[in-house]
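Now for my pick.
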Amino acid sequence: MHKVKPGIILFVILFGLWLLLAGADRDELIVAAAASLVISVLFAGRASALGSVRLHPKAIAYAVIFFFVFLKELVHSTIDVAGRLLSPRLPINPGIVKVRTRLKSPLGRIILANTITLTPGTMTIETKGEYYYIHWIDIRTEDIDSSTEAIVAKFEKYLEVIFG
């Protein structure tokens, strides 16, 4: 039974990606469902990290909101970094800061680290338990709590509901 939930989530992810990339005519739906099912059955035991995903309506709503928050931060930080690159003074203050996460789920922590790295201007260098070491293009503070608020908090509140 402990392999059922990760298998279902894996099936939904694979099937959704297939639909996103290939379209949705009848024959492709049948092939997508069959391929997703076979892969899910074969690899459900290795997808145990997906067992921490919560499937209640609030978690699903927060996943959608998280996607849009990430897109907003992606656009905002891309414009910020582009402005810094195009500026003749190159206003940067790079360095590494230490931040803390409240997330308990390994998958939630991985997604947080990758979200930080995908956002221009920040990159997760290392994770050690609840602490992340982040390269920040423009350090505004070296205080752990302030850095956590500036970098982590906007994503963490959604990931905590989705993963715990």
User: Anything to note?
Assistant: The chain has a mean pLDDT of 87. The radius of gyration is 19 Å. DSSP finds six helices and three strands in the chain. The chain has two domains: 4-52, 57-163.
